[in-house]
Amino acid sequence: MAREIDEAWIDEAIDRYRRIDVLRAEFDKAVAAHVVSVRSPDDTVEVLVTAAGDITDVRFRGSLHHRSAADLAREVQAVVANAAEAARWARGKLHDEVFGGFRALGEC
Question: Which InterPro entries does this one have (predicted)?
């Protein structure tokens, strides 16, 4: 028994694959370019992080002379952890923006 091939479905699947490929490239570009600023709990350390999770800059605000090394290390650790969370959040938002209107193949 010969199987019927639904060529329209195949064409649609190919078109959707190509569209996903274009959207993925747009998403990757947006993730690399989108930068989020995060500050430590005491506001002495600021980290700039891309949605991809790459830290692009670390800035110390104000005088650090009154700070112990241990205190400063805790602030840096806290802001880096917050930067990782901010990157995940930004990546999720960008994903929703880029892929939000895209329907699953079964929804067509």
Answer: YbaB-like_sf
Is residue 2 one of the residues assigned to a domain?
Answer: no
Domain that holds residue 67: 7-103
Give the pLDDT confidence of 40-60 residue by residue, as tens digits: 999 999 999 999 999 999 999
pTM: 0.75
Distance separating alpha carbons of residues 79 and 48, to the nearest angstrom: 10
Answer for the pair 83, 36: CB distance below 8 angstroms, yes or no.
yes
HEC per residue, 57-98: EEEECCCCCCCCHHHHHHHHHHHHHHHHHHHHHHHHHHHHHH
Number of domains forming the structure of the chain: 1
